[in-house]
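Retry 2 of 3 after timeout on previous attempt. Resubmitting structure tokens to design endpoint.
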């Protein structure tokens, strides 16, 4: 868009022209383009650490609940 065009446009015209920027597409993440998403994706060499850690924490929590309820009876 040239400067000559911009002086006749308001914020709504610019929004209508650039509206694909504001749409939320599946798997794009935070309104990023595919290129931006690829640039900000860092692969964890050890795998799914967050998922494994959550599973261990949930297991420990259930284990302590199970034993504490048995002791209270």
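Retry 2 succeeded. Sequence:
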């Amino acid at each position: 868009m040239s400067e000559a065009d911009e002086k006749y446009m308001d914020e709504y015209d610019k929004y209508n022209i650039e509206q694909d920027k504001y749409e939320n597409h599946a798997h794009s993440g935070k309104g990023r383009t595919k290129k931006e998403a690829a640039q900000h994706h860092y692969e964890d060499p050890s795998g799914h650490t967050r998922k494994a850690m959550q599973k261990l924490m949930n297991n420990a929590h259930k284990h302590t609940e199970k034993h504490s309820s048995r002791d209270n009876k």
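Attempt log closed. The mean pLDDT is 77.
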